[in-house]
Amino acid sequence: MGRYQLGAADCLRGASGRVYTIRCSTAHSGVRQWFVGSAASRSWGTPFVSEPQARAWAREH
Question: Over the chain (61 residues), what is each successive 10-residue block's mean pLDDT?
Fold first, then answer.
């Protein structure tokens, strides 16, 4: 089993029109992190400590 357990992903459309995917991961220690990625860039950014922060970033971009 890996270090993180990934939860279901959710998609949001940002102000630029780009569609972002928000995914939550949980480490074995129980710490949860939210990542925002886009299919266009095929990368995941720096983790956010809360889901509202991740969603706000995605909506603004």
Answer: 55 91 88 87 86 93 91
Total-model pTM: 0.75
What gap in Å lies between CA 21 and CA 38, rounded to an integer?
Answer: 6
The C-alpha atoms of residue 54 and residue 29 are separated, in whole angstroms, by: 21
Cα 2 to Cα 11: distance, rounded to the nearest angstrom: 24
3-state helix, strand, coil in the chain (%, to 5): 15, 50, 35
Q: Where are the domains of the chain?
A: 4-60
Token couple for 37: 């990625």
